[in-house]
Design brief:
The protein has about 250 residues and is mainly alpha-helical. It has 9 helices and no strands.
Amino acid sequence: MVTGSVFSAMEGLNFQRFTRGLTENLEPQVRQHLKNVYATFTLAGIAAAAGSYAHMYSTLVGAGLLTGLMALGSLLWLMATPYDGKNSPHRLALLGSFAFFTGCNLGPLLDIAMIVNPTLVMQALLGTSVVFGCFSLSALFAPRGQYLYLGGTLLSALSTLFWLSFLNIFFGSRLIYQVNLYVGLLVMCGFIVFDTQNIMEKVRRGDKDYIMHSVELFIDFVAVFKRLLIILTEKEAQSQKKRRRD
């Protein structure tokens, strides 16, 4: 009983320190904006899950060129619709469309993972959630603008990875593929930190477009999820192959 009371008190103290740290580090308008951003981000995640489910268990829609174009078109339409405080329902619909078709386009990767091991999808989702939460909190608790310098480095790394991936179409190198996969995962984790702090700075400058800000974090989340799922699927497939040989 005494031990339980001590642990409860420690948990309460840690939670108080956590909330006090956020309160001291973030202005009220920034905290409110982040609430809107993460709520919208959650809705986008639900729409993406619906899109993945539709691909896997429905004959009405499936991943392909059309869904890819629909996702791109929805995103471009959203970007071309400036936020004015009154068009949120319209822009939320565009966000939902983008997220739905993005989830649908994840379908083939999810199909492969389910064939290898049905639990891999949940493992990747939980792992991505933990990674996203940890890097987001590190950005929220860090001193103002501490990670904004990463922007140029991350964009340069992303550009390099793109060209490596393009060149690897012709070379077919397993090493280049692995470098692209693992380094890409690290780069996207860096983008979570950078985008989170960048969003806070945008709010301080008067940018209240929480829908577009949630899109930035949603893209980061999906990119980390895809790479983590590929890594887990490949490792599980190799493990199963090794067990069959033994």
